Amino acid sequence: MIRTMKASLLLVLYLAADHSLALSSRQCTVGQLAGDRLMIGKYTVEELIDISKAKIKRVDDRQTPATFPHATECADYSSSRCHNYNEVEPRRWVGGFLPGLFMQFYDWDISRCDLEDADAWLERFDKRIGDLSEEPTREGTHDVGFKVFYSYGHGYISTGNEDWYEPIVQGAHTLALRYSDTVGAIKSWDTENYRYPTNQFKWPVIIDNMMNLEMMLWVSEKTGNQTLWDMAVQHSKTTIRDLYRSDSCTWHVANYDGDNGELLGQYSQPQGLNMTSIWTRGVAFGIHGFTTVYKWTKEEEFLSQAIKTADCFISELEKCCENDYVPLFDFQDTEKRPDTSAGAIAASGFIELSTFVEAEQSVKYVLAADRILKGLAGSKYMGDEDMDSILVHGMGDFPVKDIDVGLIYGDYFFVEALTRFAALEGDR
Ligand SMILES: *[C@@H]1O[C@H](CO)[C@@H](O)[C@H](O)[C@H]1NC(C)=O
Ligand SMILES: *[C@@H]1O[C@H](CO)[C@@H](O)[C@H](O)[C@H]1NC(C)=O
């Protein structure tokens, strides 16, 4: 703990927030990462990454071509029939996370000069990425950012392989088709075919959408298209105005009249406990998303929103989950059901946020991330060896499905948080 605090005091000097961007295929900067000495509970970061790699390799080796893992099959942890990840179509929102994990491991290996291992991850990426080829132009959902930027985006940024550039540009313009000047936001879902209560929403914007904006900002910078930039910035401002509760935690949904832009209502379902509760993964998306938008735009308003969101998350954690800092799926859930994915997303966001704030605040966010990661890496929340997922006890889609399971995005953001933490420490 002490060591972490000392490190954090130097965080204001930490310029490697974009560390993944700086890597190119044959550069390696051994010694930059503190993975072999930074402890998370009883493991080093390196050990946790190795455990994660072994699981993800196994998942990939077994996966039916043209499908992607989403959630483990069921919640009976003692039964082996529940241990495997299910297989879903590329069009589902999670398609980018498996290739995204490959690229995270690739970056990790490159930074340690394990070039052969890195190549093996790149090969896996290359083999799978074609399965996502229809996603950059698939209209009908805001999830194009999750699917395209976390996969093609990461692949191109880490390797410079030109094959993976155009899909990112296409993805950003596909997302732009969903932007409305009248509302000042990107429409998240076309709800006609959704189940209740989502089908009641006319023109919904959800907090998750903050995670899709980096693709627009990146493409804007690359291509000089200012419109994409302005859309992402305005969407963020509208989100601040309409997707925040008075306590600075988030709503899940803001519903609009698309014809005149009028805000019709704010809700915590479909995914929260009820319509007025606090859906935790949404709050985590707010922390992570606003930190990212600030990283690109350097607009103070977005940093301050990331901080407010982070502080609400921490104060709710103190109330519900002081023991291990693993959040409930909804902060108001009296049955105390956890969501490890929300913890992983928040931890990753906290670490990034810690690089943009003053020393004292920085310490607070590093410590929060540290506590969450220790909780997640404890025996209660790490999947056993024969379990596909790295983390267990995630809440996918309450109350309908994927309840108390492993989730590929929980795994993705857990690995992201670990590698960010190691880079932060290693940068001293
Ligand atoms: C910039 O992007 C927007 C949104 O996709 C598009 O409508 C516009 O045509 C683009 N502008 C140029 C000059 O390509
Ligand atoms: C939501 O659940 C919380 C916690 O049980 C409760 O306090 C609140 O009144 C509920 N709200 C609605 C609209 O049911």
From TrEMBL:
KW Signal (keyword) present: yes
Name the UniProt record assigns to this protein: Glycosyl hydrolase family 88
UniProt lists the family membership as follows: Belongs to the glycosyl hydrolase 88 family.
Q: Where is the signal peptide?
A: 1-22
Query: Which GO biological process entries does UniProt record here?
Result: polysaccharide catabolic process
What is the source species?
Sphaeroforma arctica JP610
Q: Does the keyword Hydrolase apply?
A: yes
Q: Which InterPro entries match?
A: 6-hairpin_glycosidase_sf, 6hp_glycosidase-like_sf, UG_Glycosaminoglycan_Hydrolase
Supply the source organism's classification: Eukaryota, Ichthyosporea, Ichthyophonida, Sphaeroforma
Q: Which UniProt keywords apply?
A: Hydrolase, Signal
Task: Write out the GO MF terms.
Answer: chondroitin hydrolase activity
